[in-house]
Amino acid sequence: MLASGFSNAPLSRTLLTAVVVLSIIASITDTKYYFWIAIKPHLNEYRQFWRLLTWQLCYTNSTEVLFAAMTLYQLRVIERLWGTRKFGSFLISTLPYTTLVPPLLVALILRPLTFGRLNYLPAGPTAVIFALLAQYHAAIPYLYKYQVSATEPAGPSLMLTSKSTSYLLPAQLALSQFPGSAIAALVGWIVGLAYRRELLPGGAARWRIPDVAGKRAERDRYEGLRRRMEGDAATASGTDVGNTGNGRRRGVARAILDQFRGAF
Hints:
Layout: H1 10-28, E1 37-38, H2 39-43, H3 51-54, H4 62-74, H5 76-82, H6 84-113, E2 120-121, H7 126-139, E3 145-149, E4 157-161, H8 168-174, H9 180-196, H10 212-236, H11 244-263
Antiparallel strand pairs: 1-2, 3-4
Helix pairs in contact: 1-4, 4-8, 5-6, 6-9, 7-9
Keywords: Membrane, Transmembrane, Transmembrane helix
Organism: Myriangium duriaei CBS 260.36
Main location: membrane
């Protein structure tokens, strides 16, 4: 039976909740202007380099929050496919690239090439979402194909798959504050592909979060097994409580008798 909701996807639920809650808090406290980045003046004049680390924390308008929440709900299947440990490892190992590359790309390359016209990077984890979307594109197969044709027999046609509609919401998210949102989406997609092809430096694709809970459960299981074996050994050697003295003598006598039997 297919799992519904966020079953077996606790980290996806946490991520979606954080996107919605942080955006609401930023709106209520009127602190949304702390998250988006304008290269000039935020970085060039005010030296607010902390924005490089905080611009992905929340979205600044309700439309982007809606598109991001619906996309994350759709991408929960990645966590079910990989497991929570690998899913969390992916988010952590790609976070430095999805966080730092978009603003540095705009500040150091694209803004000079456009003579200062490209100066704005909108807030929100669009890069993270598109890094996950690259995994969805590569790992989740489509169920069927269908063709959309014009009414004329010789007119143009378009071949689509069952996954085609899944990209409509992310596309609207990428175009919501063009071109800044599109740059973040493109960087996230490239980072996701690089992770899948193990091109990220430092073996990021093979790194995993330490499985502390699994190791603790395994240690408890072996500890219980050891105690059970010690109890069975004590019972077999006759050292149970109440028969300690007689059992020890019988055990020593049996050991001596076994030695003589082995000699003959």
